[in-house]
Each structure stands twice: as C-alpha cells, then as structure tokens.
Amino acid sequence: MKSDSIETITAEIKRLLYKENRISINDIMKTIHYPHEMVLIAIGYLLREDSIYFNEQYMIIEYKTFYF
Known about the structure:
Helix content is 54%, strand content 16%. By secondary structure, it is of the alpha+beta class. Helix 1 packs across helix 3. It is globular, with a radius of gyration of 11 Å. InterPro entries: DUF2582, WH-like_DNA-bd_sf.
C-alpha cells in the first residue's frame, strides 16, 4: 500500500507529465522536493501501473500513447 507522501509524489509526477508530455528523471528530481529514493519509488509505482513508459536510453518517462 502506498503511503500518503508516495501518492503525493505520483500525483506531482502525473501533473508534470500532463504539462510537459515527456520529462527526464533528472528534471523530475530537480522539480520535486522530496528525497530521491521516494521519487524513484513513486516512478516505480507508475511503471507498475503501466501508465507510463520509461526510455532507458534517454532516461525519459512519458505517458503511454496506446495500450495492448
């Protein structure tokens, strides 16, 4: 079960993605003022929910545009 701060961070990441459409992990770390470990856990939850795509080559996350 997610804690309240993780839910807050995931909501903030979703807000950033809505605004930017794609964003680097580095930019997320600079923008969200929570410990980096918590931000990475929140990104992990979003990946597990299968709502975002992580481009390993460029270290960018973005919303998935289609689902299988």
